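dumping this here so i dont lose it
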């Protein structure tokens, strides 16, 4: 079963940028949809961005124009470029594979352990 490891989180000032990575091992992300999710303290986990197996993307309204999801199939990795970050972007960011970008209720087959993103001055 594919295992996912997120990296790239950290502390960033408002207006700054971060790039998160989701690297897969034990399997391939090729042919799979991959999503980025986040969970802020006290709130439910929410979908942020999703990329289909063939490269189509879907973003939640709150990050449109600021976040970009992309994939490098040769490196078996999916990225989330976060620009113009805001304090409300703070949370633990998770990547997941094997679900449906168009159906938030569809179960995802594999999840990473998460990486903390804190936006604060």
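and the seq i came up w/
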């Amino acid at each position: 079963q594919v295992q996912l490891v997120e990296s790239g989180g950290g502390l960033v000032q408002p207006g700054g940028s971060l790039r998160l990575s989701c690297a897969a091992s034990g399997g391939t992300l090729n042919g799979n949809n991959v999503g980025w999710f986040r969970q802020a303290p006290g709130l439910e986990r929410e979908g942020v961005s999703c990329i289909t197996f063939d490269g189509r993307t879907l973003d939640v309204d709150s990050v449109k124009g600021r976040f970009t999801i992309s994939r490098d199939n040769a490196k078996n990795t999916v990225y989330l470029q976060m620009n113009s970050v805001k304090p409300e972007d703070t949370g633990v960011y998770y990547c997941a594979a094997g679900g449906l970008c168009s159906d938030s209720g569809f179960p995802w087959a594999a999840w990473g352990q998460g990486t903390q993103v804190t936006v604060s001055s």
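The CA atoms of residues 23 and 77 lie 4 Å apart.
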